[in-house]
Amino acid sequence: MNAADTAFILISAALVLLMTPGLGLFYGGMVRSKNVLGTLMHSYVLIGLISVEWAIIGYSMSFGSDVSGIVGGLDFLNLAGVGQTPHETYANTVPHLAFMAFQMMFAVITPALISGAFAERIKFSAFLLFSLIWAIAIYNPLAHWVWGGGWLMSMGALDFAGGAVVHMSSGASALAFVLFLGKRKNYGREPFIPHNLPMTILGAGLLWFGWFGFNAGSALTAGGLASSAFVTTHLAASAASLSWILAEWMHRGKPTTLGLASGAVAGLVAITPGAGFVTPMASIVIGLVGGVVCYFGVNMKHMFKYDDALDVVGVHGLGGTWGALATGLFASKAVNEAGNDGLFFGNPEQLWIQFVSVVATWVFCFVGTMVILAVVNAIVKVRVGEEDEDKGLDVSQHGETGYQN
Amino acid sequence: MRKIEIITRPYKLEDIKKALTDAGVKGMTVSEVKGFGRQRGHKEIYRGAEYQVDFVPKIKLELVIDSGLVQAVLKAVQDAARTGEVGDGKIFITPVEEVVRIRTGETGKDAI
Questions:
Q1: Pick from A191, A253, A262: which is nearest to B47 by CB?
Q2: ipTM for the predicted complex
Q3: Is A256 close to B49, i.e. CB distance below 8 A?
């Protein structure tokens, strides 16, 4: 047990928790004013729902003893055996409870990320039911595959802080969701303009801040590797914020604040899988490319004509995919002995492994989400009625309004 | 008597007010309005999606003046409000049948 590590992990867990309200503000500012509370609710309520789910079964399914590489066993059900002494394998210098709490915050934010895709048109009861089933059937097994000793981990796939588990999974599920759900009423016919960009930009700032807990905390000890992940995280976000506005400046004529905030998030997403495996200079390249990839990624929805309201596919799906592949290019054992070398350090095999993890994650999450949606839709219709959508989620789902004019 | 309506750029208000006062105009009414002319507003871009914003903020000044003052007022307004760019606005002139000052009951030229 190490007191410095314990303090670091507890603070990191708190930082990751802060990302979820930050995400709520980021998303909340981008919707129309009649949906601001409903959108904030999508993030906040998952803190409650998923935390409880995680304690009862999620942690065990993710980090319990391995069952055929697919899912964790039930040894930690109801947090049995998760106490104040360290676990021998997971973060063995901090209390097992601290590691569990840190991982809990990741489980909370991931389904919240998806909520940006179906914003402004989902029934609250269906949202809760979907998120709960998705956490159990998709997130928990996937976390086990990558971090809990499952098959992707055994294969040698590198995912430092959740490129597959958090970002690709939410992006792929978001794509399935918007194809299932259809476009918002009058989408493409009337303008859907963000109602409060300063709120969005504040949210992006909180995400950036919290991301230091997300990525540096994933080192699980307060030391050199955490510092390295801290620096790569910051530099990738900085580089991507610049490359996104540069891309839109050249493409559309003006650098926008929403572009800068989106670019920063895109860079944070892109560096997440490789944060603890790549050098600071590599992270700048990953960020620069990530900003441009995601900028053009969000434009895909106009080409393919789906309504991913707040660009979860373009930012998290594509950013996470780029980051996973970039890890296969730029990873270096000189940075992290526990990692591996990537293509640029003489190990092309790693890129192949990363590619397999990308395909597995996308297919599993896309197909799984479609199945869950079919089930949920049979129980409670997922989409709100036309009149309720017109009134907005705030009044129709919660009986409140965000602003009195 | 004539009623002059001027629709133009908000930031020109102070210049126009001064020019009108200098030309002998005693009073005016100003409103914040929204609208568009041939230039059709402006474009806004959110994550690569373009939206045409047709109604842009303008100000509308309304004043009633003696017919003899019309040419001086038109010149004053044009000098003060013209930038040469699209969106400078328009001036509308209409005849006024009668004016009544509510406090005193005065009518016509005396009531302006």
A1: A262
A2: 0.78
A3: no
